[in-house]
Design a protein that fits this description.
The protein is of the alpha+beta class and 178 residues long. It is built from five helices and eight strands. The protein has an eight-stranded mixed β-sheet, with helices on both faces.
Amino acid sequence: MNLIPSSWSTPTFSCEDLQSSEIGVVQELYMASAPVALWDGKEQDPHYIELSYQEGILPEGGVKEKFRIQSIRLTTTEEIVGFISVYHGYPREDSLYLAMMCISGDFQNQGYGQEVMKHFLLEIGLLGYSEARVNVSLRNWAGLRFWTKSGFNRISGIFGDKEFAEGKFADIELINRW
């Protein structure tokens, strides 16, 4: 199976495998990224990026070798402004699962996330993948708008609580298939 390149780029950004020296900066971006507790009822993990780097975010039965986390840097300043983490070959061999994508709040709503996703999808298409999947909280309205605008317009399932109420949460798995 082909893994995304350890380094790839867009006109504005360079994306490279996360280095251990970058864990702290990327963890700060993750912690500042969004009100996750409002979406899924869980607090953000203060060790999420370190765990991702060391062990990976894996599906049941998954292996670390199929996981990759990368920093997203401005090419002009080398500043880390986000990250993307993916698992290759889940739930099907020709699927790529986006565990998370984050762009710093200072760079949101300017089309940068769309730019990264457009080039990312081109990269994985060249590797032979026929779809990408992402899980989004139904309460994450900005995320739902972003992912559907990025072509994730097929639903493979809705998971979680069955009714809407305070303290109840659900997610939707979206697919971009080409």
